[in-house]
Each structure stands twice: as structure tokens, then as C-alpha cells.
Amino acid sequence: MLNNLKNDFPIFKNYPDLVYLDSTAMSLKPKVVLEKLVEYYSRYSANIYRGVYKISEKATEEYEKTRQVVADFINAEKNEVVFTRNTTESINLVAYSLGRKIIDEGDEIVTTVMEHHSNFVPWQILALETGAIFKIIDIKDDGSLNLNFQSGNLDLDEVITKKTKILALTYTSNVLGTINPLKEIIEKAKKINPKIIIVVDAAQSAPHLKIDVKDLRGDFVAFSSHKMLGPTGVGVLWGRKELLEEMYPFLYGGEMISEVYLEKTIFKNPPHKFEAGTPSIGEVIAFKEAIKYLKSTGIDKIRQHEKELTLYCLKILKDEFGEKIKIFGPKNIEARAGIIAFTFDNFHPHDIASILDDQSIAVRAGHHCAMPLHNRLKVNATVRASFYIYNNESDVEKLVLGLKKVEKTLT
């Protein structure tokens, strides 16, 4: 169990009673990240690439160092790392720049019912625009994907065909906490159709699990800084070099240009081809400190810490409230992230969250940008508590006390 990490996060000094259980939406920021952000704005606040003066060159150097740090973090090549605004933009980039190039009428696009809207709607719209077939993989009652296993082997023949051009799936569900057997799914899908493009939403995985894109063997992986201790406004798209080279630019303008003439424009090579205009420079620079913090803490230790907290929370919720609380997602902790979505009796999730907020307990209530999943679960909304490195057993116990206050208030 990780201890005393709250001391590294200034927000707890300003709000010592805060029980923050919404890291799935936005993680808190350690002091080293905030200091790096201030360093940029106070010491070398200049645009990147374009200046030949010292502070611009310093900003460029720090910015590109982050690209290398990200590449090392996911075992990628530096020129395969594209900076965007967030996971949503990363996935949309693929949908626009590649999807609209390769998808024709009658082709298949496959995703799952557990996806965040960011990895569902872009593919749904692409299918509607092109006349492609949009196929949805369902879930089982335990929150795992409804994929048949025969003799211990994953069977995707019912879903993936030679017509399937794109398979878009989440590594970890932001509602169920389900950790999908991604490597096995990708391996099986590629055997059925070697030309299939695999797009992975790793927004809920990059902060918590070790990701090795070379070992995973997908084609694109997207995630966000703000969910892994870094600033907002920074997303990452990793893509295989040969695919990035084939793709159209997503935006046109400054910096992504190599040469412009009256009759034609020549674009830069990836990743800069996809990074038009002035980016979130300070935020990208500070992002590297977040990754360094995660690496120094240890991804394996973070995962173990979250497993222990999740097990503790699941047990204490069952012991205290029994059948009054319905928890969604896998019971097997090895297949579950530090996310617990639940309903409580007949109380509305927004009322629950509001009463918890009165006790300085921050949880999320709603459909969590996953309406198809909530419709599948036959609930309009859930309460979601999520854990990260700064949480501890005391936070779980305060959540339980808060829910007792909810029950007393609303009954």
C-alpha cells in the first residue's frame, strides 16, 4: 500500500478534508508538475520551433524532451508520438485522417457497448457517413466482453470478418472498471484479418497499467495527460509510423507545413504533420514530470495499491449495505481497475453525490459519457468512485460514513 503521497499534492493542503474519488475523470496534480508549469511561464515562456533566441530554443528542447519521455513510457519510437488536446481528439484524428480514407460502403467498423462516447460516436458517425456496417460487441452480466472462449482460446469469428476495417475498443472501461484482455483480442483479430486497424482507448489504462505498444501490437493507442497526474489540454496519439505517414493531416496551418506554394503545399513528416498551430506548450512540458513521478512511484506498485483499495471498498460496501448497493463490473480483481460504479437503493445518483459533496467527498454521478452502456445495464445513471495513488483506506471509510448519511437523509 502506498503511503503519505498526499503530501506531494498541494490541493490537500488547501482542502485537508477532501476525499477525492474522481480520478477517472481528472487526476490531481503533484507539486513537481505544477512547479514545471510555472517554470515554463516564468522562465522561458516563448513559442516553440520558430524562434532562434535562447528562451524559444529552451522551450523547444523541453517540449521535445516530453515526446521522448512519453515514447519511452510506452516503448514507442519518438516520431510515432503525436500530441493532441486529449484522448477524444486523438481518436477523432484517426477517424478523420485514416477512417475516411479507408472505409467504404459495406465495410465493417466494430466497437463495444462499454466504450466512452469518444471511442463510440466517431465510429458511429463514420459508419453513417460512408454506409459502413457498425457492429457492437455486447457485455456479459459480469461486465466482461461477450466473447466466446473455446478450450481457453478467444473466439472472435462471430464478430471480426475480412470486411472489418477498424476495431476500436477500450483497454479499461471507465464505468465497469473492466480490464479487457487486449493483447489476446488483438492477436486473434489480426489472425482473422491481418489488415484490420486496431484503435485502443487507453485513457483509463495509461495512468494505472504498464503499456508496451510494441508488445500490444495494436495500430493506434490514445490517452490523456490529465488522467495521469499531468495538466489538462494534452493528449497523446501513438500510431504505427507507416500508418501515420499514409494519413492525411487532421488540421492545416502553422508548423505542420514544410513548404507552401500558390499551387500546392508540402507537409512535414509525422508527428509534426498532425500538430498544427501553437500547442499547449507549458502543459506538454509539465506532462513529462507527471510521467517521471509515475515511473518513480512504480506502475506495478500503483496497480497493487489500487487493487487493495478496491477489494477493501467492495468488501466494506457489501458488509455495511448488503443488497441495497448494486455494484457493476467484474468480481475478479485481476480483471478490474480501481473503479466502482454503483446504485444505492432507489436514491438518485445525483442526490447521493450532492450529499457526499456536503461531506467533502468527491464522486461522479451520471452516465459518465457512456450512455449505451448504461442503457445496456438498464440504469439511467450510476455513482462512480475511483481510486488513485493518493487515496487510502481512510478515504474508503469516509465514503462509507458518507453513504450512511445519504441513507439517513433520503430515507
What does this molecule look like?
- This protein is an alpha/beta fold and 411 residues long.
- It folds into 2 domains: 5-21 and 298-410, Aspartate Aminotransferase, domain 1 (Alpha-Beta Complex); 34-295, Aspartate Aminotransferase, domain 2 (3-Layer(aba) Sandwich).
- The protein is built from 13 helices and 17 strands.
- The chain has a 7-stranded mixed sheet, sandwiched between helices. It has a 4-stranded antiparallel sheet with strand order 13-14-17-16, with helices on one face.
- Strand 3 (108-112), helix 5 (121-130) and strand 4 (133-137) form a beta-alpha-beta unit.
- The longest helix is centred in the last third of the chain and has 23 residues, at 299-321.
- The radius of gyration is 22 Å and the shape is globular.
Overview features:
17 strands, 2 domains, single chain, globular, alpha/beta, 411 residues, Aspartate Aminotransferase, domain 2, four-stranded antiparallel beta sheet, Aspartate Aminotransferase, domain 1, 13 helices
Major sheet summary line: 7 strands, mixed
The strand order across the widest sheet is 2-10-9-8-7-3-4
So how many helices?
13
Q: CATH fold name of the largest domain, please? A: Aspartate Aminotransferase, domain 2
Helix content: 25-40%
Structural class: alpha/beta
Total individual domains? 2
Mean pLDDT: 96
DSSP strand (E) fraction?
A: 15-25%
List strands and helices in order, with pairings.
Blueprint: H1 11-14, E1 19-20, H2 31-43, H3 54-73, E2 81-84, H4 87-102, E3 108-112, H5 121-130, E4 133-137, E5 148-150, E6 153-155, E7 164-170, H6 182-192, E8 197-201, H7 213-216, E9 220-224, E10 235-239, H8 241-246, E11 257-260, E12 265-267, H9 281-297, H10 299-321, E13 325-328, E14 339-344, H11 349-357, E15 361-362, E16 364-366, H12 371-377, E17 382-386, H13 393-410
Parallel strand pairs: 1-15, 3-4, 3-7, 7-8, 8-9
Antiparallel strand pairs: 2-10, 5-6, 9-10, 11-12, 13-14, 14-17, 16-17
Helix pairs in contact: 2-9, 3-9, 4-5, 10-13, 11-13
